[in-house]
Amino acid sequence: MGANHNIKRYGEQWPIYRIEHGLDILNKLKTWVIISGGWAWHFMSPEDHTEYKHAHDHKYIDIFVHPKDVAKVMITLQQEGFKKIWTRYDHMPSNENFRRYEKIDWLNSGKQIRVTIDFFESATVETITVNSWTLVEPKTLLSYYSNIHSSDKCWAVKAAIQLIAKGKNPVGHVLLSKNPLEKV
Q1: Which of 75, 119, 146, 156 measures 20 to 30 Å from 57, CA to CA?
Q2: Are 24 and 103 in contact (CB under 8 A)?
């Protein structure tokens, strides 16, 4: 589980280049992947929301891939310059057949950006479609915060838990990307 947030940092935003690089690869993989984690919450949030760091975790891109599409995704990642990265999780027994891929790009400013994709293989993920993106269904996504994802303190996760408990659909809800310290 993620550490509690430092509320003094709640106004911090993700740099636009991180969002652009994530969207670039996701658009190339869109046909074959189910988006999970912070990027799923991103796509469930209202369009044109502010990219607060504490709302959605954009550090990693979490995807599920059906076994029949694994080769297509791996070839596309390799064509885009991604490399397989070994982690301590690679040798652990898992139902999801985990892989990690990374790519380091140089920005025009001379700064580096690392794009990391955590790749899980599964034929049984419950999904929804939002604006043509295939995402892990919200209740299912919340269940992953006990074993696959770690940022359970993000605003979207907390808001989704509350909304679902009240019988409300979190998709498109303003609370998924709203600073909880601000008035409604």
Answers
A1: 75
A2: no
